[in-house]
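@channel anyone free to eyeball this complex?
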Amino acid sequence: MEQPDNGTVLEVFQLTKVFRDFWRRPRVTAVDGLDLSVQRGEIIGLLGPNGSGKSTTIKMLLGLLHPSDGSIRILGGRPSDVAVRKRIGYLPEDSYLYRYLTPRETLLFYGRLFDLSASERRQRTAELIEMTGLGPAADRAVGEFSKGMARRLGLAQALLNAPDLLILDEPTSGLDPMGCRQVKELLQALAARGTTILLSSHLLADVEHVCDRVVIMYDGRPRAAGTLKSLLENQERMLVNVPTLDAAATRRLLDLLRKELGCEADVSRPSMNLEEFFVKVVREAKENGTPGAAGESKMATFLQA
Amino acid sequence: MTWFRQAVALAGLTALEVLRQPVCLLLVLVSITLTALLPFLILHRFGEDGKLVRDSAFALHAVFGIFVAGYAATTALSRELQGGTASAVLSKPVSRDLFFLAKFAGVVGVVGIFSLCSGLATLLVERIGEKFVTTGGVIGYVTDKQTGVFLLLALVMACVVGALANYKRQRPFGSITITALLAGLVICVVIGCLFARSGEWAPFAARMDWRLVPVSLLITIALVLMSALAMALSTVVGTVPTLTVCSAVFVMGLMSDYLFGQHAAVSLWARVLYSILPNWQHFWVCDQLNAGGQVSRAYVGMASLYAIVYAAALLCLGVVVFRQRDV
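replying in thread with the prediction:
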């Protein structure tokens, strides 16, 4: 199944989902008239508070929930098409793993569902286990895993088929800051090779780092949508970024701006956010030879193709 | 043949997940241990010649089998739907029909393994149980003590193998122990085939009561039918309601002749219920073995056909409902 020529990977029109009770009476409208279009190679973020309809939307895109109204066209087909799902990777909100299987068994099992050859299954499993830093736990039952480790394995299974469309529900939940950073870098690398990514998250900083475009949902409806630049840029103010000046030079600059522009200006030092600082500290510690729980992520070769 | 490979993977995973669960191991171990102890617990004779041991072993097979079938079916579907693993699998290129039917195949695999263990244990305890013998210069009651020792040894060794595999290599205790138990029971039966009850060499397999096999087979078929019912119910309701309805259907189906059969000629409702409920009496044929009787192949064939048609109808219903439901 080929993608449409215009590069549209996903088209959603007036998508609606009404959950009903046992007697078929409407109980809650989880998604109400959602329109969405996603282009190839885009990273789009689905934002919203709990119960805003993000996960319901994602499940309808995957054919897990039947829409009450509206239509979905995904990778040129319907969500229920098995051939379409062959090209999709999905990381659910909770990793939903078989607790008595090991990571290796889990990935080999999913590899069989994608009908990968035995050698491909083994190679991809090994590479993904290494990439997600699960090597030391590769033969332990998943039921013993922390949430972060389960998340890493969840991400590995979502990437197993080198998907054209990657759908991630809260991809960084449960991960430590290093893990979050690795995931974000991975998503950017995948998008650069043409993978389309749809992710939902509560962690706005994550979305801000990686997404080209966001849709903000509330009560099942989209309330704002657009590129991050168009939504977040303050058209009323500007920042001038210069190397550190001494006190006299700073005063002269502020006087000049006041005189020339007739407006008040202020000076502040740019600062790293806490995540950037944390990552810097840990990377320095690693360079000094202190081993950590998870290694640097090295992208699996089959994902680089 | 992609669908076939997927079905094999799904069925295998289902069986593996169930077998690795402590509850499944507990059911198998308790069932086989009780079966192994039957000859030592039933001490009276009354000329019954091991009938009590045999019937009790079949009853344990049936009762524990229902728990195994119900537990396996609800674990395979209800719990996966509730736990979310079903949605993770169905987001892959797997059709819902294939998912449902492969899950059923996995459950049948578990029921098959349990039934094989139970059937082999029944063959062995039938030998162990006291019998009045008038052959080979022996006249009187004979107990096959060495087979009893082998059977108990197989149980202990299975647990030891499972524990060692878990301790040394971190392998799952449940599935390893069940596999080791099955292997041990096979070895016990092979050894049993070499000897007569009194301990002398005998022509291979001549001294085993193979009439027990069709009876075990019919109980297994009934368990498969029960699994199909549990699977179909699991598409609509959760674990507890599924097990409750299965138990109710089992009890009513067992008494179907008494409750509805005798009124079928005069009451439409009785006729409908008699037709709809699976009649478990068709699969409980221990009494046929009394006085040297046996179950004919034709009967096994007819009962299997009845079960296949019934299970197919339940599975079709399950597939239709599962297609429509939200995961």
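from a first look: The beta strands of chain B are 131-133, 140-142.
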